[in-house]
Amino acid sequence: MYSILKAQGVLPLVTQINIETAQIVLQSAADAGIKIIEFAARADNAKEVFTQMIAFKKANNLDVKIAVGSILSVDDAETFHQLGADCIVCPHTDLEIGNYCFKNNIYWIPGAATLNEILHANKLGAEIVKLFPADKIGGPGYVKAIRAPFPNLKIMPTGGVTLEESNLKSWFKSGVVCVGIGSNLFSKEILLDLKYEQSLQAFQNLIEVVEKTRN
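That's the Aldolase sequence above. Prediction below.
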């Protein structure tokens, strides 16, 4: 999973979507060459939508992994793992969730804000740590500062990452492995009436700008 995220450079996130929109997102992501996306399980019908996403992915033989985000408890981690999640993403670091993921061989990306929290997540076994909310705790300058004494930190900033070249360039220049991007890729309004061509173009543009700003 690490190699996929590092190569892709970005983990696109969608949340609070209906089944039809979820299918559009999956198909267009796969067609654009996206290898992994995150579905944040924040809505009441998240389990139902995710179940349909997995069924659609299998039925159409799509080469795209699905990480499930906003996982707050070990019970939710177990539920979505059994439903077919390829990766569990949390806004925080929870030992129980981490232990469950390691025991069941599912990739775990916990969230952290401070250097001590990031190091603690690493000690618990996390390879990549989600820096959240990245823009509110210092941005790229913060990442650069904490990586100075710990250059091997593998960080994925989420929160405040935009599609602007200057923004992405500053994050990658700070040494992050990849970035997480959600509402700045698909706003709530866009997701209400998302069309396939629109979604495909968004993913293609995302890949292009990430490759451009990383190199």
